[in-house]
Amino acid sequence: MGSETQTQLPVTEKIPVIERVLEYVLFKFRWVFVVFFLLPVNIVYEAYFSVRNWIVFKLNSAPKAHSRKVAVIQKQIADWNKNGRTRKMCTARPGWLTMSFRTPKYKQQLEQIKTNQLVDILEIDKENGTVRVEPMVSMGQLTKYLLPLGYTLPVVPELDDLTVGGLINGCGVESSGRKYGLFQHTCVSYEVVMADGSLVVASKDKAADQSAENQALFYGIPWSHGTLGFLVAATIRIIPCKPYVQLSYVPCNSLETLTKTLEAESNNRENEFVEGLAFSKSTGVVMRGKFSDNPPKNGVINAIGRWYKPWFFTHVKAILDRNEIVTEYIPLRDYYHRHSKSIFWEIQEIIPFGNNWAFRYFVGWASPPKISLLKLTMPKPIKNLYERHHVLQDMLVPLSQLDQAIKVFDREVEIYPVWLCPYNLPSAPGMLRQRSGRNILYVDVGVYGTVTKPDYRPRETTRRLEKFVRSVEGVQMLYADTYMTRAEFWEMFDSSLYEWLRVKYGCKDAFPDVYDKVSKAARD
Ligand SMILES: Cc1cc2nc3c(=O)[nH]c(=O)nc-3n(C[C@H](O)[C@H](O)[C@H](O)COP(=O)(O)OP(=O)(O)OC[C@H]3O[C@@H](n4cnc5c(N)ncnc54)[C@H](O)[C@@H]3O)c2cc1C
Ligand SMILES: NC(=O)C1=CN([C@@H]2O[C@H](COP(=O)(O)OP(=O)(O)OC[C@H]3O[C@@H](n4cnc5c(N)ncnc54)[C@H](OP(=O)(O)O)[C@@H]3O)[C@@H](O)[C@H]2O)C=CC1
Ligand SMILES: CC(C)=CCC[C@@H](C)[C@H]1CC[C@@]2(C)C3=C(CC[C@]12C)[C@@]1(C)CC[C@H](O)C(C)(C)[C@@H]1CC3
């Protein structure tokens, strides 16, 4: 790692021509490998896990197996304590499975606690409106299980392989956030194995048998990235849902209209879902949605998740080009996973012809390749190329600062589409900085794609973006590259509760500090 002030050379000056050619060829023809090898592997992989999950579900073995699985984790921690706490701990989840461009380098130096058996949905409590799940349960698994029962999670982050553990210990955001907040705000309690091996229940509301400290732990877990304890189960709210989302697309032709429309729709209590896609500094589409039982006779049903349907963002762009408000009815599961098929818009660089009708009709059902498999098989030259030219960032800023944020991103990287996802941020303790005493609307500004600006420097440009975000009381999502120093990091996040919990629960010599897990130096 270089020093903070180090100036980077123009990216291409440092790279030998032969390497650049190799990178280019591999990048251009990655689709051959993906289409002819990865997609077939994908099918086998998916089939294996659906059969396995079906058997577990039918045998109803999961709830019975849970305490045995927790005991296995407690035993590992007891052994680690007995052996003198020589190294700090993390989960043994392999790096290629994690939903980030990076692999966690820090895991090599740490004691890896095996939590990978915790993959099951434990119980649904319709009366109290909750579901209890193990942390490796994925969003795809949960929507498949809950929707046929007429229930859903209030916030369903859209990529199928995102896990409950990752979303709680990191952060999860989705278009229902304007009503329900972040994923963490929909949770009721966490079951956590602490550094001393004890199992603690940390709940939002203090139960009769529960100490106030454990309640504080509830607020400390989100964003802590597994540095307070190991999550072994979470109880999450569920809400009744309907089979369709009535979705209206509102094209906007100036930055002002876009931001004002997004704000107005976010403040409109009738909307269950609000999201925006900016296609340039001055054009975009705001989408507002609500649950619907039955599309009316003349209503347009659009099952956007079907294999032959175009990528969702291209559908939205076509509506912008037509410049008219469109309303359609989308099956709920298709809506939730609307960005999965095109991995937002990342798939266009991996399978450039993936939106061609012939590809969609004949091979679309096998697509997209799993992100984890793509990651596992990514050759080093492609990684280098992404490293130098690709931006993957989500910045969470107050909605009132959105026009500023779009201008800053446009000046620095000029990548479109930009994902705009408003959410409500309550004033509550924890690592998130917001102590106004009232709810504030924030917006996730998600920028994913190749930057063509000649003066782009990954480190310096990102540091400028981070500085802007700190200046408006925003935060960066930590699956992405963060180039902040430790001091800057704790300027962005609130360390008070976190540090107190780290001392209280004996975490200091048990888990690394969160900064040492998420900073660029800790990840490859
Ligand atoms: C994208 C993805 C989605 C998945 N979804 C599901 C799903 O929905 N349902 C499901 O049941 N499974 C799912 N799995 C599988 C699950 O996450 C684990 O990979 C699997 O349970 C362990 O398989 P393995 O023995 O091959 O582990 P390996 O990959 O060989 O091991 C990974 C790590 O876990 C440790 N480990 C292996 N076995 C144990 C054990 N018994 N106890 C403690 N530690 C152990 C290993 O030492 C290693 O450190 C999914 C996997 C992937 C990649
Ligand atoms: N729409 C959205 O909101 C999206 C969110 N994301 C991001 O992706 C990440 C989730 O990805 P995913 O692959 O599921 O998770 P990861 O494996 O990336 O885990 C994220 C962090 O949570 C910790 N963690 C995970 N499970 C546990 C557990 N059981 N106990 C303690 N700590 C745990 C991990 O610790 P350790 O390092 O020890 O394994 C890691 O630091 C989140 O950070 C999220 O912000 C990405 C795309 C979309
Ligand atoms: C808050 C929200 C909605 C975040 C969305 C983030 C996604 C767009 C990110 C998460 C993981 C991610 C970084 C990833 C990639 C693209 C952008 C993703 C999907 C890809 C698929 C790009 C191509 C790369 O070769 C590789 C396969 C390593 C990565 C894997 C992770």
From TrEMBL:
The chain crosses the membrane at residues 29-49. It holds the Pfam family FAD_binding_4. It comes from the Eukaryota. It is found in: Membrane. It is a single-pass membrane protein. This is Delta(24)-sterol reductase. It catalyses: lanosterol + NADPH + H(+) = 24,25-dihydrolanosterol + NADP(+); 5alpha-cholest-8-en-3beta-ol + NADP(+) = zymosterol + NADPH + H(+). Its EC number is 1.3.1.72. Its main location: membrane. Keywords: Membrane, Oxidoreductase, Transmembrane, Transmembrane helix. One of its GO terms (biological process) is steroid metabolic process. One of its GO terms (cellular component) is membrane. It is an enzyme of class 1 (oxidoreductase). PANTHER family: 24-DEHYDROCHOLESTEROL REDUCTASE (PTHR10801), DELTA(24)-STEROL REDUCTASE (PTHR10801:SF0). GO terms for molecular function: Delta24(24-1) sterol reductase activity; Delta24-sterol reductase activity; FAD binding. Residues 57-241 form the FAD-binding PCMH-type domain.
